[in-house]
Design a protein that fits this description.
The protein is α/β, with parallel strands linked by helices. The protein has 2 domains: 67 residues, no CATH class; 215 residues, Rossmann fold. Helices cover 28% and strands 21% of the residues. The chain is built from 9 helices and 15 strands. A hairpin with a 3-residue loop joins strand 5 and strand 6. The longest helix has 17 residues. GO terms for molecular function: acetoacetate-CoA ligase activity.
């Protein structure tokens, strides 16, 4: 499909608006064409007569109000053996598109058994890793809302953020590799989780150490996935503007504030993304998005 829009035939000046720009702000056709051009997977496509539901200034306008889709479904539609994610935690590991989808399927089945449902909030105290991408995609596939904090953040900083949202599950790493050396996180995350239980947290899931194989006698990701059944990976169909990720402001001018992002995000098949920080929507979209059959 070719995108069609008016062409500019003369150089722009201070009094002229390019036809392309005018077309993008005055016509809804551009956004319908983009939806089709990008091959967005959806159970209900957007309505041709209603692309933006305008609101007053203090409200968020709704984009594609009639459409229904799932963010994770659009990222996991590939099932081939091409590399989707390359990770490093002392040893470089590669994960294929098929392998990623299967790991998401197993974890999603397990969390559904444990009660995760649409609208539930899941957080992770975790490094920017394959594990975090899987947790984010699992949460998105079920219709939950995902948030994360970096492993080098202090106890007060993590609690300042997570106390603002009522969490159902928290995943936490107990050890990370920094500068080639393992760094223990167990004392910090134990204190965080103990405080979050007073704020409504229902379950904490520990991620075993990837460096030393260290285990603790608490609920961990391995035991959680053992409860998974053989159900197919299903994707909850949700509105385009449905909350998907909760991010946070830096907290430099006061307490850190929650910022909600919806499913209206994306990446192209050729994109490679590297980020040394907390896993966020773009990092979760590290998977090279390809909406055509392999």
């Amino acid at each position: 499909m070719m995108l069609t829009y008016p062409k500019c035939t003369s150089p722009p000046d201070k009094l002229q608006i390019w036809p392309e720009i005018r077309y993008s702000v005055e016509s809804d056709n551009l956004w319908l064409e983009l939806w089709e051009f990008l091959g967005i997977i959806s159970s209900v496509p957007p309505q041709e007569t209603k692309i933006l539901e305008k609101g007053v200034l203090h409200e968020v306008p709704l984009c594609f109000p009639g459409a229904r889709l799932n963010y994770a479904e659009n990222l996991l539609n590939r099932t081939d053996d091409a590399i989707a994610i390359t990770g490093e935690s002392g040893v470089i590991t590669n994960c294929t598109f098929w392998g990623l989808r299967e790991m998401v399927r197993v974890m999603a089945a397990a969390l559904k058994v444990h009660g995760l449902k649409v609208g539930d909030r899941v957080a992770a105290i975790i490094s920017n890793s394959l594990h975090c991408v899987i947790i984010a995609l699992v949460t998105a596939s079920i219709g939950g809302i995902f948030s994360s904090t970096a492993t080098d953040m202090g106890t007060s900083g993590i609690l300042e953020r997570y106390r603002q949202i009522t969490l159902k599950f928290v995943f936490a790493e107990i050890e990370v590799l920094y500068g080639g050396k393992p760094v223990a996180l167990l004392p910090k995350v134990t204190e965080v989780i103990k405080n979050l239980f007073y704020k409504g947290l229902q379950q904490a899931i520990w991620l075993s150490s990837r460096m030393m194989g260290y285990e603790i006698n608490l609920e961990n990701a391995t035991s959680i996935t053992e409860s998974a059944d053989n159900r197919k990976l299903e994707f909850e169909q949700l509105p385009f503007s449905r909350p998907l990720f909760i991010l946070y402001s830096s907290g430099m001018s006061g307490k850190s504030k929650s910022i909600v992002h919806s499913a209206g995000l994306g990446a192209s098949p050729e994109d490679t993304y590297f980020q040394y920080t907390t896993t966020r929507p773009k990092a979760a979209a590290t998977i090279a998005l390809d909406r055509t059959p392999p």
